[in-house]
Amino acid sequence: MAAGVGDGERGRLLENGTVVHLLGYALNRGGASLKNVPELLKRCIREGCWQRRLIEQTGAVQEFARFEDFVATPPLEGLGATVQLLQDMCAHDQEARDLIDGAVQRPVGTNQHTMPVDNINSQPRPDGNSKDYALRRLRKHRPDLHRRVIGGELSAHRAMVIAGFREEPTPLEAAKRAAARLSAEDRRALAEWLRQGAG
What we know:
Strand content: under 5%
Mean pLDDT: 86
Number of strands: 2
Structural class: mainly alpha
Largest sheet: 2 strands, antiparallel
Low-confidence stretches: 111-122
Order of helices and strands: HHEEHHHHHHHH
């Protein structure tokens, strides 16, 4: 038994270790196993498995204060990956991407001067028009709308408008954005339709 770990805590730490082990296995195995990464990663972050766990193979208790360190540290202690790789692997799972973003954010009120800084591996902040930025802002200031976006009830843009963080585009702005996504053939058809008096 790991030193300083009671029977009750050992079971929880062992379960945390199992989740991390399965996640690392899915990442390193590749192929069909990769489809399991988003769900395992979500559980790992939600339950804090990455912060403190028992590594069954060695019997050691492993702890991390920063998610980035857990991701970058080679197995068995960490995942031996990058945060960007995890984000890329969860490209179609917005909840997983949002949980990753939340895990790499510094806690509110953290003294940045007392925390270790890794300028090489620091994560870029999402920009003002991205979905990731919208989710980060909603998570911080409007958790009620954030839950609705994650649940698929609202788009991130719509939630930002409801929250007052973005203005509703005018009909002309919306039409310009829509036209920019049209194929060349569809743009020509639209121009012809407008020339003829829009119907």
